[in-house]
Amino acid sequence: MFDEKTVLRIPGPTPVPPEVTRAMTHSMIGHRSGDFSTLFKEVQENLRELFQTSGDVAVIAGTGTAGLEAAVYSMVQQGDRVLAISTGNFGDRFTDIARRTESEVLTMNCEWGTSANVQEIVETLQQYPDIQVVLLTHCETSTGVLNDVKEIARVTHEHGAYLIVDAVSSFVGSPLLMDEWHVDIVVTGSQKALGLPPGLALVAMGPRAIERMKEGPAARSFYFDLRRYQKDISASTTPWTPPVSLIYGLRQSVSMILAEGLQKTQDRHRLLRDMTRAGIRALGLTLMVEDDHMASHTVTTVFVNHADEVRKIMKNDLHLAVAGGQKQLAGKIIRIGHMGYVDASDVLQCLATLEIALVKTGYDITLGTGVGAAAEVYVHAENTRN
Ligand SMILES: Cc1ncc(COP(=O)(O)O)c(C=O)c1O
Prior knowledge:
The chain has 386 residues and is α/β, with parallel strands linked by helices. The chain has 14 helices and 15 strands.
């Protein structure tokens, strides 16, 4: 009966709004046509607003990793010293991408579950004055940590280096004022808070990044050479055949976020985070990220006994999927995604489902405790009306 029913509370892919699904059924158009240019121009203008940049946003057929690879291959030049800050699994992947360039990669590995220490970054920058590029993950999806992009961008800019931020799982969920904070490149993917299917990478290039790429040698990668994408944006097109249907979906998703208002979208994500955390705490479970200031607005990580069994019950019996831990966290945590097309009732449903699975696996909790605590947060929050 429920073969195709799965409520996605994983940190991506996320539920796709029906309006976006409908938009993607638009009949096919030629990508070198005036119709496509009109579509792409509108998308480009709206994306600049969401990224908070006066620069350009490359729309690449590929997932978030493709965007990270494009950013690194286009920005890092032979012989550069790169500081790769890693706070978890996705930071490690970002580091691996940089290691494939002909650069000197310096790694700063932070304890999983903690955010990057700004003072330590300042000291590293002082110790290595020739660091030209810094890589940072905004929301580390494997641990649920949110890094302080604003401060790290400030010290990186003061040092004269370029900052590339992986905002794959934080984009539009958490504030990121690209130009104002001096972030040079921001990368995201379609299947997170944008509420699209997987398949699009967006790479926002600020004015300084555009200058560096123009002056530098050609990127080592052909497909992922951001200069090609940037050059074509002024003609409202893309260098290679774009995924037209996804771009129709992107236009719809972006316009829905702008209609809600970026600030309101971010406030909603923060509220969902606060509700989730209140529910988890009321159940007596341990959050992986105890400090609210370091906690992601889009994914919450929780230590749970028999985590995989709990997930299985939630998925098989109640058709709600949460994610498990990665690498050394496998079997130890669950990761609850609350990003994109998600509202307060979705969080209540997720907590209710979790509570049932906890009881079934032997937890001594009173059903409704987590749901009640989350509902309290909602009731006392301001501006929850649409
Ligand atoms: C922070 C972060 N970076 C990078 C990625 C990789 O993105 P993709 O799987 O779309 O290539 C993810 C995916 O979950 C992510 O959460």
